[in-house]
Amino acid sequence: MDRFFAILIILIIISSLFVFVKNYQDVRGAFSKELFTSFIAIYFILMLGFALLYFLLSEAGFSLLVNQPLQSGTSFERFFHSVYFSGVTLMTVGYGDVTPIGIGKPIALFEAMIGYLLPAAFLYKLLG
Q1: What is the pLDDT of residue 113?
Q2: What are the residue boundaries of the Potassium channel domain, all occurrences included (predicted)?
């Protein structure tokens, strides 16, 4: 049964790519590589900026996450946890393995709001 769903998903992806390539001339007029690259760069900069904010606040002694993953380990591990949490929050995935506490809650809420509204702004710019 799992194999059936895997094959089905692969077929859907291939057919989607086929339709995209077939209609590329129509899509190309609306799609901008520069705009898409800018969108990815903005996401990356925001993710690293919030990660740096989480990292620096944890270094200052603030408790930001449950189980304190930003308080233990090497500096690289703590920064990696900050980047991971920032990425999951910004992209509004929210796996649930890391939960903000204290001052981390409003910061994460603000970051999630930006992550939720940024694609809408991208689409508005693309279509408008």
Answers
A1: 93
A2: 46-125
